[in-house]
Write a structure and sequence with these properties.
This protein is mainly alpha-helical and 117 residues long. The protein is 39% helix and 7% strand. The strands form two sheets. It has a two-stranded antiparallel sheet.
């Protein structure tokens, strides 16, 4: 069960109005509890089916496009953050792609660019 499926199973009909469910961070009717519930369900399902799970939480600001990635990475280096963490963040933004799988069919990878991450 994916994130979107968990979320659709949990949300109420009135929450379908306005912003799409994929943009929940920009909708006032969702709280930290909603996100925690969804995340916990995803973790439970990956454990239940012995599937690998990799999560990355990067929230520099609600509007990612207003921040230059190079400036963040430079700043982290200046503050001597472990280079492994910087490399992980760099990988998240350099040549990032996403692929959607529904049942056994998977689409071709789609490049992620500004405004999509």
């Amino acid at each position: 069960m994916g994130l979107l499926q968990c979320w659709k199973a949990y949300k109420h009909p009135k929450q379908q109005q306005g912003q799409p469910v994929e943009q929940t961070a920009f909708r006032g009717e969702f709280s930290t509890i909603d996100y925690t519930y969804t995340l916990r369900r995803i973790i439970q399902k990956t454990e239940e089916y012995y599937r690998p799970l990799c999560l990355a939480f990067v929230d520099y600001e609600k509007a990612f496009d207003s921040i230059e990635t190079w400036a963040i990475l430079e700043s982290l280096q200046r503050y001597q953050v472990d280079c492994r963490y910087i490399q992980v963040l760099r990988c998240l933004y350099d040549a990032a792609t996403i692929s959607v799988q529904v049942q056994n069919q998977q689409n071709k990878p789609i490049s992620l660019c500004r405004g999509v991450r």
